[in-house]
Structure formats: structure tokens, C-alpha cells
Amino acid sequence: MANDTVLSAGKVPVISMQHVKKTYSMGDSQVFALKDVSFTIYQGDFVSIMGPSGSGKSTCMNMIGCLDRPSGGVVKINGKETALMNEKELAVLRNQTVGFVFQQYFLIASMTVIENVMLPLRYAGIDRKERKVLAEQALMHVGLSDRMTHYPNELSGGQKQRVAIARALVTKPRIILADEPTGALDSETGKTVMKLFWDINKAGTTVVIVTHDPRVGASTRRCIKILDGLIQSDVKVIHKVVKK
User: Fold this and answer.
1) What letter would DSSP give residue 55?
2) Euclidean distance between CA atoms 217 and 28, whole angstroms
């Protein structure tokens, strides 16, 4: 188990899970998705949460993304205990603090690239002119300034994922939460996407990647492994910066 004092390095905690438990009812029985999970992720960390299907990693992701509440223990995101917040407060926290990237992109087919990236800003109440400027900046950051007026079906898988990353970045969140972001990509395109996450992290954003892929886990700064709802290990990783 990693030394938490060493991992913190004087940083500010942005994600804290302390003795978190999560149970689901399945008919007359209960499923223990998380049994007793504790870890802290600090501002500027680049962390992978690894485990096989059914290990509890997706439940951890849902806790970090404020998509679910614990059955026991305490989850704090940006210093706020999620179990004490109502749905409106959770929605604001998700929109302003966490940017989501998913394996299947979830782009809206009828919208152009820039319209997809602008969408979270509309939910945040930003006026259209500013939305457009911020979306253009985000797309430039991921190298897609020449694809702004294209539609998702005109893009490759790697380009779609970069649009999804731009959409996650556009609200300038403290945390980027990515669920199997390279799972639908070939290995070379996956390396390019991981390089982009490194660039985002170097700029100061906390990046958390949920994955079953050991190559992705080896490409982060810290790897938390989970199995059967329990933390198996939490270690620093030797930096393996992925080249394009």
C-alpha cells in the first residue's frame, strides 16, 4: 500500500473516499459492490483505478462522478460530502467540478462537433457567444480546430474521443473522470489519447481513469487496484509517458 503522506506531496485533496460501502438489492439478496474502500486523490494527481468486471471500479467511478451515493462511509468531492447534498447541488457539482469522458463517446449525432462541445456550457447558463469561444479553445487544445463543423459520423474513433475530451474540458473542471477511454480504440490511437491526458494533467487538472487495461494503468502516475469491493493495492507508477 502506498504511503499517503508521500502521495499527497502537500497537495489539496479533491476526492476522498473513507470506509465507503455500497450495497444493491437483487430480489431477496444483497450485492456488496464496495465493502470498505478508502483512498484520497489530490489536486494534480493522475490516477488509474483498475480491476476486472464486477470488481467495484465502476461503482467507485459513480461515487466520484456524483452519480450514486454510498450505503456507508463518506465520499467528499472538492471538500463537499456528497451524501449531504440534494440532487440540484449534485448536478451543479458534476457540471462545474467533474468532466466526464466515456468509452462510447456519447456524442449527439445531429449536432456538429462544436455544438457537442458547447452543450455542457449551455447547462451551466453560459451565453451562446461565450460558449462558442470556450468550445473553440477546447477543440484547439485537442487538435481538432479543423473539424468544428463536422458531424460525429464524419470522424474517426480517435477524433470522436478527442471531441469527448474537449467537451469534458470546456467547463474547466478540477477533475477529468474517464471510463475506459481507450477501450474502443486501436493501440496506436489509444496511445495518442493517453498522451493527451498527460498533457491535460501537466496543465494542473486531476485525471482519474477507470480501466481494466494494465497498459493504461502503467501509463498513469498512480494505480489503485480493486477486487471484490476492496482495495488490493495503491502504488506510485514509474512514469511511462506515452509518445504519439
Assistant:
1) S
2) 37
